[in-house]
Design brief:
Order of helices and strands: EEEHEEHHEEH
Shape: elongated
Length: 208
């Protein structure tokens, strides 16, 4: 039986594991869960390190950003949907006040290797670390409340993109995170980390 995707809470202090198996890719899956439009129920952040065997990905998924993101994202969401919903007694983001029974996901951003480089992490070559920034909103399941998820998801997306990003070199997050001034696609926690990573990053770094 082929290996299945597995997941564990992400430990920022350790960063990305350097000794991951050759036949899998590692994705840091971060989720903002909740409704930031309501002060009594602010979004809660979760982060997991998901190991996905290449056997679960079709050959084309590591070549195109859109296809790759959709496939890997589906795996990550399926692994953690029930856990996220059970993490607390969530209320529907609508005005009904009922308990949440479903989750609406959206506004995902793929961070890490730039477009066209996913194949570099294929079997036998070592997996490149990837970062998926996701947003999730709990709701009761009714259509009227479902429509209101769009507004909440837009708010989560706007507020948390940079806050959830991790240093390209050491994997740390928090205050002090800054984008690469040239490509704007990766972030670093310090000039030291940027300098250490530059030899590898300069091969991929290009203005957006």
């Amino acid at each position: 039986m082929p290996p299945k995707a597995t997941s564990k809470p992400f430990d920022k202090s350790k960063g990305f594991e350097s000794d991951m198996a050759q036949e899998q890719t590692t994705v840091t899956y971060a989720v903002s869960m909740g409704n930031p439009l309501v002060s009594r129920d602010p979004a809660k952040k979760f982060a997991y390190q998901v190991s996905i065997p290449y056997s679960e990905l079709t050959p084309g998924t590591i070549l195109e950003d859109r296809i790759f993101t959709s496939k890997v994202l589906l795996i990550c969401r399926n692994l953690h949907r029930d856990e996220l919903l059970a993490s607390k007694k969530w209320k529907c983001l609508g005005t009904c006040g009922n308990d949440a029974k479903e989750i609406k996901f959206g506004y995902t951003v793929l961070m890490g290797p730039p477009k066209g480089t996913h194949g570099m992490g294929g079997p036998g070559e070592g997996a490149l670390p990837l970062f998926l920034d996701d947003a999730a909103v709990p709701f009761c399941g009714e259509e009227s409340c479902f429509q209101k998820t769009k507004v909440a998801l837009e708010s989560i997306h706007a507020r948390n993109l940079l806050d959830l990003r991790l240093c390209e070199n050491c994997g740390k997050g928090g205050d002090g995170i800054k984008k690469c001034s040239r490509c704007k696609s990766v972030v670093y926690c310090s000039p030291e980390c940027q300098s250490k990573r530059w030899r590898e990053h300069k091969k991929e770094c290009s203005p957006p």
